[in-house]
Structure formats: C-alpha cells, structure tokens
C-alpha cells in the first residue's frame, strides 16, 4: 500500500495565529478531518515577509479541512483551547482568527463572546478577514517531522514544497510529538500506508510524548 500523500476531497480553509506556529502545525495536522497544513505569515502589509524580516505580520497556520468530517466550529474549539488568548505579546506571536467567509466570521465572533465569559483576563484575540498568506520557509514546514532524518527518508520526504501538501506528513508531524494520541495513531496506520518499521518508529515517539502537552 502506498503512502497517503494526497487526499482528493473537497476542502475548506481555516487560518489562525496562536503564538509560535510549530505547535499548531502539529496540533491541527493530527486532527481528524484536517487534510493539509502549512505555516506562514499573515495579517500584515509587508510584501514578501520572511522569518528574519517579518514586518507587521504574525506567525500563522493555514488549514485545509474536509467539512464533512470536521466542522469549523470544532476547529475554533481547538484554537481557543490550545493557546492563551489573553497573552499580551509581540505582533509576531499574537492571537488572531482570519475568516474566509461570512459564516466563519459569525462563528468566530460568537465563540469570542463565549470565551470572554470564561477568561479572567481580557482577550486580545482579533478577528480579521483573511488576506494574503505568505508561506514560511521550507525548514519551518512540518518542523517536528523534519527533526527525524530517518523518518523523513523512510517516507520519501525532503525539505521542500511537498511538506505543505502531503497528508501523511501532516499527520506524522503531530504523531511524533504525541498529538492525537497513540490510540488514534493505531487507527491511522493502515489508512496512511505506513510500513511496519515506520509505524514502530512513530509509535514509540507518540507513546513517549502523548501526555507532554503542546510545546514549540
């Protein structure tokens, strides 16, 4: 069975900023219903931002999801529960929701009001229309997966554009730091087309980090 790099289903897009983008890349990548992820820079006016010359942009995560498998409301729930929306920080790491249509805007505003009733400190999250999303450099894409040279070679991946489109890369980028959990990983092994050797390698990491929580 071949590795599941490409999933041919209609998708919708969700875009968030929730501090350092490595953590949400792994988090959303391991979320059932998410097809692809890519990290980049959004929300600013500078043309062609880079990590070393970010301008007024924010580190962000762009998610392609299957709306028949996961709702935008669920993605918002993941957003709110996996970072601190009250943290006052630099523009690079601020909390943002970028909406792609009126329905997303309405749901984002609704959940923001709900969160305001739960948080002890003022929420700093802004809700903005999605504009140009500038892809981050290749070495930032699927960063956790790229830390494992053997695994990258075993699934035929290298640092490059395919890291932004590969479904199996998105999943493994989460599983190697315990995102999704080992039970979900076991259900995913056959679907992703993983060899026994690759599955054993990833399983050990997933078990090791399953309860470690998000980190960047």
Automatic annotation (TrEMBL):
Peptide methionine sulphoxide reductase MsrA domain: residues covered: 13-149
Q: Which residues form the signal peptide?
A: none
Q: EC annotation? A: 1.8.4.11
Q: List keywords of the entry alphabetically.
A: Oxidoreductase
Instruction: Spell out the family assignment given in the record's similarity comment.
Output: Belongs to the MsrA Met sulfoxide reductase family.
NCBIfam families tied to this protein: msrA
What lineage does UniProt assign to this protein's organism? Answer: Eukaryota, Metazoa, Ecdysozoa, Arthropoda, Hexapoda
Q: Which InterPro entries match?
A: Met_Sox_Rdtase_MsrA_dom, Met_Sox_Rdtase_MsrA_sf, MsrA_helical
Ranges for the Selenoprotein methionine sulfoxide reductase A helical domain? 162-203
Keyword Oxidoreductase part of the UniProt annotation: yes
Q: Which GO terms describe its molecular function?
A: peptide-methionine (S)-S-oxide reductase activity
Protein name per its UniProtKB record? peptide-methionine (S)-S-oxide reductase
């Amino acid at each position: 069975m071949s590795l599941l790099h490409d999933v041919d289903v209609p998708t919708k897009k969700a875009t968030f900023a929730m501090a350092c983008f490595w953590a949400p890349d792994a988090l959303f990548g391991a979320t059932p219903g998410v097809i692809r992820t890519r990290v980049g820079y959004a929300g600013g006016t500078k043309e062609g931002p880079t990590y070393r010359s970010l301008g007024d942009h924010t580190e962000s995560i762009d998610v392609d999801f299957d709306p028949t498998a996961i709702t935008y409301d669920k993605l918002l729930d993941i957003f709110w529960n996996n970072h601190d929306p009250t943290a006052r920080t630099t523009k690079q790491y601020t909390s943002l929701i970028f909406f792609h249509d009126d329905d997303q805007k309405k749901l984002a505003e609704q959940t923001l009001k709900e969160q305001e009733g739960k948080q002890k400190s003022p929420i700093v999250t802004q809700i903005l229309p999605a504009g140009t999303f500038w892809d981050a450099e290749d070495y930032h894409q699927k960063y956790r997966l790229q830390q494992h040279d053997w695994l990258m070679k075993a699934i035929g991946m290298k640092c490059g554009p395919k890291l932004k489109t590969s479904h199996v890369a998105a999943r493994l980028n989460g599983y190697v730091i315990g995102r999704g959990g080992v039970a979900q990983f076991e259900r995913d092994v056959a679907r992703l087309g993983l060899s026994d050797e690759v599955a054993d390698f990833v399983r050990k990491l997933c078990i090791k980090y399953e309860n470690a929580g998000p980190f960047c």
